[in-house]
Design brief:
The protein folds into two domains: 2-24 and 105-182, Ribosome-recycling factor (Topoisomerase I, Chain A, domain 4); 33-100, 2-Layer Sandwich (Gyrase A, domain 2). The chain is built from four helices and six strands; from the N terminus they run H-E-E-E-E-H-E-E-H-H. It has helices spanning 2-24, 74-83, 106-143, 149-182, and strands at residues 40-43, 46-49, 54-60, 63-68, 91-92, 97-100. The strands form two sheets. It has a four-stranded antiparallel sheet with strand order 3-4-6-5, with helices on one face. The chain has a two-stranded antiparallel ribbon with strand order 1-2. Helix 3 packs antiparallel against helix 4.
Length: 184
């Protein structure tokens, strides 16, 4: 039973970790290297994540710099940045690509907050799906006589506590991201 609880907790925490990763790529008014995590570049005949082809830095609050390890990839990286859905315009000086991060408009901030809420709700649903799956397994085991009714009741309480804790963690992540987005 302890092993099942550990596995359940790990699966539920996975939803919160995935949300944190998604939030890192959500653009705020501040420069963050996490914005470029999803950018893939056509290089050497394959699609490769940008962070494997270049050093990505945020030297200033409103600027991201991308310095390719191989200068021949400058054009391919610039093209990938232009085609990405980030809405940032790269400028290149032959050695380094600069991405100025403009201030977000009030309308764009509200749109980002709505997107963050949607991502958080998807994470909550993932946690609830884990709860549902585990509870169904436990009920089946109780029906088959593998565990007692008391064990089932204790496990249900424990799983509900895990679910509540993970949903609370997701809500806290959302509150921090929302504050970050709305910060002017």
């Amino acid at each position: 039973m302890q092993e099942r609880m550990k596995e359940t907790k790990r699966r539920m925490e996975g939803a919160a970790k995935a949300l944190a990763t998604e939030f890192a790529s959500l653009r705020t008014g501040r420069a963050s290297t996490g914005l470029l995590d999803r950018v893939v570049v056509e290089a050497y005949g394959t699609k490769t994540p940008l962070n494997q082809l270049a050093g990505v830095n945020a030297p200033e609050p409103r600027l991201i710099t991308v310095q390719p390890y191989d200068p021949n990839l400058l054009g391919a990286i610039e093209k990938a940045l232009m085609e990405s859905d980030l809405g940032l315009t790269p400028s290149n000086d032959g050695k380094i690509i600069r991405l100025p991060v403009p201030q977000l408009t009030e309308e764009r901030r509200k749109e980002m907050v709505r997107l963050a809420h949607k991502m958080a709700e998807e994470a909550r649903i993932a946690v609830r799906n884990v709860r549902r799956d585990v509870l169904n397994e436990l009920k089946r085991e109780e029906k088959d006589g593998e565990i007692s009714r008391d064990d089932l009741a204790r496990a249900q309480d424990e799983i509900q506590k895990l679910t509540d804790a993970e949903v609370k963690a997701i809500d806290e992540l959302l509150a921090r991201k929302e504050a970050e987005i709305l910060e002017v």
